[in-house]
Amino acid sequence: MFWHNFKYAGKMLIKGKDTLFWTILFPIALFTFMYMAFGNIMEKDEMFKDIPVAVVRDGENDTALMMVLSTLSMDGEDKRIDMEVLNEKEALQKLNDEEVTGVIYTSDASLTVRQSDIKESILESILNQYKQMEQMYLNLMQKDPEAASEIIQKTVQSDAVYYEEISTTDGCQDEYYNYFYAVLAMSCLFSSFAGITRMHKLQANESALGMRRCLSPNPKLVTVLAEYLALLLVQFAAEVITVIYMRLFGVQFGTKYPAILLVLFIACNIGIAGGMLLGSWSKCSYGGKIGIAVAASLTFSFMADLMVHGIKNSIEDKLPILNRVNPAVLVTDCLYALNVYDNYDRYFRNILILTGMAVCLLGASILVLRRNKYASV
């Protein structure tokens, strides 16, 4: 009887449009829209890269400045700019087309930019430093041009360190990835909808199917476990599909995939067990239970930074205990720790809490269901 219930519960879940939408289509669609909105913001605006710059040579005594700029554009660890010598019209056109960050005029070491941000400030700092040492460079060029080249190169490389990209981890530290991790957490919690639906169809006072199943000689515990495992299999498969889809878009999860799958597996248990516990509550209508599940899932996800970045850190500063009991926060924290940290300390702490939640919710739902009695069916 166990395998019979398991098989047909799985078939109903796979064929159910609601299950297909909330477990697979909705998370994938939400992730896709988020990725289109800000998936590359970090790489475009916050990560330092070589600064593209156009240089307009319209001066007779610009050898020293050109040597400084050439040194900063040399391939290697000390490269800071990507220089291109153009006439003024071409340079300004590239600036308007945002192909270069700024235009440097060698006649007076001036800079023209479209806006002011970090990259423009770096270019301005380069020119300001050059102006401070301009006379020294010119004197060197007049006395010994060959020696001047080496001295200028050493001076620029030793002093003009405007930024340096230092890798503290092999994982991606893009802060916007937390949105995508929160989508996975929300998807796991949405499995509570299926849990409520299955319990609705198991209780005699809520559905005609529940009446017939209560008259079955099959032990209720066996029926509940079969339904539970079918739900878990379908939901976990949906999470794996979502992760694969995210990876196709370049979202980094690190390389610890067994640990990642364990997080999602336990999170699915929490969502399903929570839905079954809520579904076994006989004093609330089916619609009311779904409403509570939606509100709880979205609230937990909101606190995990799904809608607004920084909420999780604010709660961590003010009331950290809320983050320790929020399954969505624990899931995102596990995924972040696996991606960024080399050790598993933070990960195992969260996994223990998640496992405890899953066991307690499942035990409570089974206990409540077994205590449900009917005067007549």
From TrEMBL:
Membrane topology: Multi-pass membrane protein
Signal peptide: none
Keywords: Membrane, Transmembrane, Transmembrane helix
Primary residence: membrane
Parts of the chain that traverse the membrane: 20-38, 179-200, 221-245, 257-278, 290-311, 347-369
GO cellular component: membrane
Domain ABC-2 type transporter transmembrane: residue ranges: 17-367
Compartment(s) where it occurs, according to its Swiss-Prot or TrEMBL record: Membrane
UniProt xrefs under InterPro entries: ABC2_TM
A Pfam family recorded for this sequence: ABC2_membrane_3
MF-aspect GO terms: ABC-type transporter activity
The protein's name in its UniProt record: ABC transporter permease
Naturally occurring in which organism (per UniProt): Coprococcus hominis
